[in-house]
Write a structure and sequence with these properties.
With 187 residues, this protein is of the alpha+beta class. It has one domain (15-177): Zincin-like (2-Layer Sandwich). The chain is 52% helix and 14% strand. The chain has eight helices and three strands; from the N terminus they run H-H-H-E-H-E-E-H-H-H-H. It has helices at residues 15-26, 30-37, 47-61, 77-81, 115-130, 136-145, 149-166, 173-185, and strands at 70-74, 85-94, 97-107. A three-stranded mixed beta sheet has the order 1-3-2. Helix 5 packs across helix 7. The termini are far apart. The relative contact order is 0.17. The model is unreliable at 176-185 (pLDDT under 50).
């Protein structure tokens, strides 16, 4: 049985750009560039904290849209579906009413990433509440919620390429909690 090939996270980008990222990985420079741009991991550690974070973003940008009934980190998501997040909608008939439950699942790889990357994936999944397809309206909504959406998506994909090649995360959840603790103690 052959091993599965690594996902090409930069497949949709120009070949020259993908090759430049690959060269930076091979030269050991991409990690430093990303750490300089995004020095710390976020502090969202639990499913409850993630739920609150998502609802806060939804309340800021999509007040009239339905709220998700569940938001969670999912350890199987990245491996099984080669996805970083999912938005599902399940409709059930209850008596004469049609009830819809929405769920957002975020790959656990996002537990050890900068807040900008978490915000980008949350914005992406929230945009699916209003726009199901990855079309122009979808990306306009993403840009409304996060003006740097495209840059963050590219940087995330470059990081995932690095992570696939090096196997070592750049950010640790412990670093984020430690830096938060020291900032609280300094007050």
């Amino acid at each position: 049985m052959r091993p599965k090939p690594s996902p090409n996270y930069l497949a949709g980008y120009p070949v020259a750009l993908a090759e430049q990222v690959q060269r930076l990985i091979e030269q050991g420079l991409l990690a430093d560039i990303l750490l300089q741009k995004y020095p710390l991991a976020h502090t969202v550690r639990t499913d409850k904290a993630l739920y609150d974070y998502v609802l806060e973003s939804k309340g800021r940008y999509l007040r009239n849209a339905g709220s998700p009934s569940k938001v969670a980190f999912d350890s199987k998501l990245h491996v099984i579906r080669h996805a970083l997040g999912t938005h599902t909608s399940i409709s059930r008939v209850q008596g004469s009413n049609l009830k819809t439950k929405r769920e957002i699942r975020i790959a656990t790889v996002f537990k050890e990433m900068p807040p900008e990357f978490l915000r980008m994936i949350v914005v992406h999944e929230l945009a699916h509440i209003k726009e199901r397809e990855h079309d122009k309206a979808f990306y306009q909504l993403c840009l409304y919620m996060e003006p740097d959406y495209y840059q963050l998506e590219f940087d995330l994909r470059a990081y995932l390429s690095y992570l696939d090649a090096a196997g070592m995360p750049l950010w640790r959840a412990v670093d984020a909690v430690t830096s938060l603790d020291s900032s609280v103690q300094g007050r």
